[in-house]
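Re: duplicated header lines in exported structure tokens

Our pipeline writes sequence and tokens for each protein into one text file. With two proteins the header for the second block appears twice in some exports. Here is an export where it did not happen, for reference. First protein block:
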Amino acid sequence: MERVFLYDMDRVLLIFLLLANLERDNITYVTYEGKEKILEKLSGRKVILEKSKMYAKNPKFNRFKMSSYIGEIRGELAPLLKRIRKGEAKLYGMDNLELGKRVFYKEKIHVIEEGTLNYMPYKAAPKKWKERIQDLIAMIYGIGERKVLMGYGDKVEKIYLTSDLCDKIPVGLEEKAEVIDLKELWKSKSENEKQLIKEVFNFNDEIFNKVSGDTVMLFTQPMSEDGIISEERKIELYEKVIDKYPDKSIIIKAHPREKTDYSKYFPNCYVMKEKYPTELLGVMGIKLDRVITLFSTAVFGFGKDVAIDFYGTEIDDKLFERFGSCDNIMVRNAKL
């Protein structure tokens, strides 16, 4: 049986690699220009779509131009689409981004959880009359998109939810949801598969030299880069935060836009330069005790067993002046 994976997001790729048998399965990976590098070490067929055909410059006002591009892509992928429709290949990925929503919109799909978004109430947005007319014209030309997303559509065969996030299967998904334990899937992998997954995500074993026992992850923010506070003040704030956890191993996850070299200031912490999904830490046996932030939303989605320390903008007058209270994100539960 062939598996076809739509690669949009690293976290979903990791879950798919844990679900698939990387030594025996015949896998076709589909993505678009600019996303293909991470797939280089994986065996199997790679289908790289032209990015210009994935996105019109302004989808809101160029919907038919975009639909024309999607029609061209589906024409090029006709043999693959036929194998999926005949049941010779199974489709995996997300149904709410361009690949699953528009390119593979007619095909049955196995949806993979992308994060906390899968547990938010979902209701298809009502269409305005102009959009209804556009839908009708597009349908006449054999072009369309998935209307019901996040696993609820009738063309979804199964949705995989992770035990870390799934307290309860969302209403309406009970019949097609399968709750999976990523750690158990990792344990079932052969040593060759484990090594391949580590290579795909450039996992650095050095982390084991600095992290042991109870571990916390600090998510930093580009406050000095954005000119809100000075670099010195930013480091001072994070020093005070880190001092609150003297008996913990600390991983620092810097924001992608930051230029600060945190390893210079916090040599006893592991400063994470890799960009792999944090779920990989869990399957590798690094148990996060809690996640910490001033007011970044990146701390959400780690599961029910990981505590959150949210310090809030009240930690600094300039931050509070710029952003106000972040109680709408989370009521601060930690103070210096």
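Second protein block, exported in the same file:
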Amino acid sequence: MSDSSARDLSRTMAELARSLSGPRSLDERLRAVTATVVELMPPKACAGILLVSGGKRFETVAPTSELLQKLDHAQQQLGQGPCVEAAVNNLVVRSDDLRSEPRWPQFAATAVGVGILSSMSFQLYTADGKMGSLNLFAFSAHAFGPEEEAAGEVLATHAALALTAARTEEQLRSAVASRDVIGQAKGMLMERFDIDGIRAFELLTKLSQETNTRLSVIAQQVIDRR
């Protein structure tokens, strides 16, 4: 990578990092990543993120072109393709010319049929039973070289961090909501049975253990039944 290219990449990454640091939704953050990918890649490239749940459910996120959903749907139907292989098995999957690609012949034929000739996919670290990949497609063969691969790996890290941050925020919101529900249920038990907070919490815990039900669910049932 030339010095000027490295400076351009560093500048773009810094701008992306600043844009992702503010209060934005997950979709907005991921769209910023895929838009930046396209900006750094050859002309007429398109990008998107594929999330795979349970090995069966496919979700296309933040696509820069409608083609991404069509290509991901084809991979789901065929059970093969670069995005799936990257999400499940490999860190980086690249095809320089899909017209002669032996790894996924059926998908390659589908992609070539809509004008896509090369692809590059990066595995994303996710959790909660999900796998993911950042995916790029181009309308020309040999569109992605070492410089594009290096930039893609950095942007894949940004996408993975955005997914991790969103998951953490969701867990925190859930924890706060559960705490509030349990507190409300405790108050109702304290008032009804004239007991203190410790005894009320012990009652909720006992019900949770005896019914093998989460404490927050038991608390919500207490509130609903009053």
